[in-house]
Design a protein that fits this description.
The protein is α+β, with helices and mostly antiparallel strands and 151 residues long. It contains three helices and seven strands; from the N terminus they run E-H-E-E-E-E-E-E-H-H. It has a seven-stranded antiparallel sheet, covered by helices on one side. Strand 2 and strand 3 form a beta hairpin. The radius of gyration is 15 Å and the shape is globular.
């Protein structure tokens, strides 16, 4: 299992950063490898991603979600095996630290080589920079889901 941990500080209030992160169907706006996400209910999503030229699909279950604190998930089937959590930390009234941790199982020679070379960390770091740029340029969220999912 490969683990990725990346952090970025975003110049928006914690509620704005968290609210945007709960808009899963907008992830293709800042996650380069995500083609689409369909949210089927409060805790289930279907993902289509393109990694290294290969299209993969999987379902994920939100296993824990607490407003302005964290969102955790597990893949539940499909072409990839991973789990993760994103946490939100208030640095001050207008700045939020966003930390992403992903544990994943590389598939095939290309992904295993990429994992050894740190390609996953580079991709997550780039995606967080995209999120930062998107949020700081618009300064508000496109929607919100403030529900709580207990672990």
């Amino acid at each position: 299992m490969t683990q990725i941990i990346e952090t970025i500080d975003v110049a928006v209030p914690i509620t704005v950063a968290y609210n945007q992160w709960t808009q899963f169907e907008s992830f293709p706006d800042f996650l380069d490898e995500v083609v689409s996400i369909t949210q089927t209910d409060d805790t289930h999503t279907h993902w289509v991603v393109k990694v290294g030229g290969a299209t993969r699909e999987f379902d994920a279950t939100i296993t824990e979600q607490h407003p302005d604190e964290r969102v955790a998930w597990n893949s539940t089937g499909g072409d990839t095996n991973h789990a993760g959590v994103v946490t939100f930390h208030k640095l001050d009234e207008g700045t939020t630290r966003v930390t992403v941790q992903i544990d994943w199982e590389p598939e095939g020679l290309l992904e295993k080589a990429g994992a050894v070379l740190g390609a996953g960390s580079h991709a997550v770091k780039k995606d967080l920079k995209n999120f930062k740029q998107m949020m700081e340029s618009r300064q508000n969220e496109t929607g919100a889901w403030r529900g709580d999912v207990a672990n």
